[in-house]
């Protein structure tokens, strides 16, 4: 992505007094709850604030329709549109009128769209932290750890996705914070249908 790479947030420090067996059990419990949260989710809509490593920021609206569909529409003047669907990740620059499509599996954000979500096997958990009512889980693809990682930050009770941090293959980090969260809504399928001619027509009209 030319301008932005979607997600590390400040570390959430686990109490040092926890014994190792208790800590391991706590981590397994957290991972299980995070998996259950995402696997129960169908649709998710929120406003987002994205802050890049260099301090640049952008706002917009995010739609997630599990499994496999996501849309990030940035507020003007930011020209970027990001869509995930059909196992592809579509990046469009409205200023340059230039689309880029890469496999969804090559992006850390693909973890959010798995169904069912299992944080094991071809996904490696490299960190689980819990403090101040928040939990964070850092994951990467087991076969391609160098391509980047994503840290998911959730409120613990009730569990709600509030933030994520992506670190890309070049070590650049981008943090996305979510607010005005709505779940369980209905979305128009055309929001994610970037291979549909009607979607292209709409994109042309909105330039």
Annotation keywords:
mainly beta; 2 helices; disordered N terminus
Structure description:
The protein has 207 residues and is mostly beta strands. It has 2 helices and 11 strands. The chain has helices at 20-39, 197-205, and strands spanning 43-52, 57-65, 69-74, 80-85, 88-93, 98-103, 123-131, 134-141, 148-156, 159-168, 173-183. Strands 6-5-4-3-2-1-11-10-9-8-7 form an 11-stranded antiparallel beta sheet, with helices on one face. A hairpin with a 2-residue loop joins strand 4 (80-85) and strand 5. The model is unreliable at 1-22 (pLDDT under 50).
Please write out the topology.
Layout: H1 20-39, E1 43-52, E2 57-65, E3 69-74, E4 80-85, E5 88-93, E6 98-103, E7 123-131, E8 134-141, E9 148-156, E10 159-168, E11 173-183, H2 197-205
Antiparallel strand pairs: 1-2, 1-11, 2-3, 3-4, 4-5, 5-6, 7-8, 8-9, 9-10, 10-11
């Amino acid at each position: 992505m030319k301008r932005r790479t979607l997600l590390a947030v400040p570390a959430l420090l686990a109490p040092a007094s926890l014994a190792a067996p208790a800590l391991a059990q706590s981590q397994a419990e957290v991972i299980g709850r995070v998996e259950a949260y995402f696997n129960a989710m169908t649709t998710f809509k929120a406003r987002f604030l994205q802050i890049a490593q260099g301090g640049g920021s952008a706002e917009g609206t995010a739609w997630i329709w599990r499994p496999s569909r996501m849309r990030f529409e940035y507020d003007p003047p930011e020209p970027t549109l990001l869509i995930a669907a059909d196992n592809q990740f579509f990046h469009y620059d409205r200023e340059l009128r230039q689309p880029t499509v890469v496999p969804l599996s090559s992006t850390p954000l693909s973890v959010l769209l798995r169904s069912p979500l299992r944080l094991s096997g071809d996904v490696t958990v490299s960190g689980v932290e819990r403090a101040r009512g928040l939990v964070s889980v850092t994951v990467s693809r087991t076969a391609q750890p160098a391509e980047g990682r994503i840290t998911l930050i959730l409120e613990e009770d009730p569990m709600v996705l509030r933030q994520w941090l992506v670190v890309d293959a070049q070590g650049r980090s981008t943090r996305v914070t979510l607010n005005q969260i709505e779940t369980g809504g209905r979305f128009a399928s055309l929001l994610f249908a970037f291979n549909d001619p009607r979607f292209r027509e709409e994109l042309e009209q909105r330039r």
